[in-house]
Design goal:
Elements lengths: L2 H17 L2 E7 L4 H13 L2 E5 L2 H8 L15 E6 L4 H12 L3 E8 L2 E3 L1 H9 L3 H42 L1
Length: 171
């Protein structure tokens, strides 16, 4: 990797750090290419990214961002999972680490807030932004549905009573 490629890699990482909501640092303990590809595909499906970078370049890219606390975690073969949604990257990384012993969660950060392993796992248990939006829509729609049901109930009862009288007179 020549100097220009390194500068481009640092600029890309720096740009990524300024746009994301969470960064999860993982340690790669000898994953195969197929396992890495599977992890990247799962991340992509969740709206997250997974990058392996040279630690020195990643530390340089951290300068001037909210994720400066990650510098101490960048030792050994690490990968950086990130997403705009504060939950997506953590959720995929933790789920993948449960089924694959060659991926270890080191820690992470949500902006200036550093997270240890337990913090990342706790973050992974939270609902994603899409799930929260769906719950809010459900809560907003529920009262209208109940009002419609209540408003229809008296009319339905009157219709049943009239039907019963009509059946009684015809019998």
């Amino acid at each position: 990797m020549d100097r220009a490629q390194k500068a481009e890699a640092v600029a890309e990482l720096n740009r990524s750090f300024s746009e994301v909501g969470v960064v999860v640092v993982t340690r790669n303990l000898g994953m195969t290419v197929a396992q890495s590809t599977a992890l990247r595909n799962k991340m992509r499906e969740a709206g997250a990214t997974y990058k392996v970078s040279k630690n020195k370049l990643a530390k340089i890219a951290l300068d001037g961002t909210d994720y400066g606390s990650l510098g101490d975690m960048l030792t050994g073969p690490v990968g950086l999972a990130s997403s705009v949604d504060p939950v997506a990257a953590a959720k995929v990384a933790v789920e993948f680490a449960k089924t694959n012993d060659k991926l270890e969660i080191v820690g992470g950060a949500m902006g200036p807030t550093a997270l240890d392993v337990e913090g990342v796992k706790a973050l992974a248990t939270m609902p994603s932004l899409d799930e929260l939006r769906a719950k809010i829509v459900g809560l907003l729609v529920a009262p209208a549905t109940k009002i419609a049901t209540i408003a229809q109930a008296p009319a339905a009862q009157i219709a049943r009573v009239l039907s019963a009288y009509a059946e009684k007179e015809n019998a």
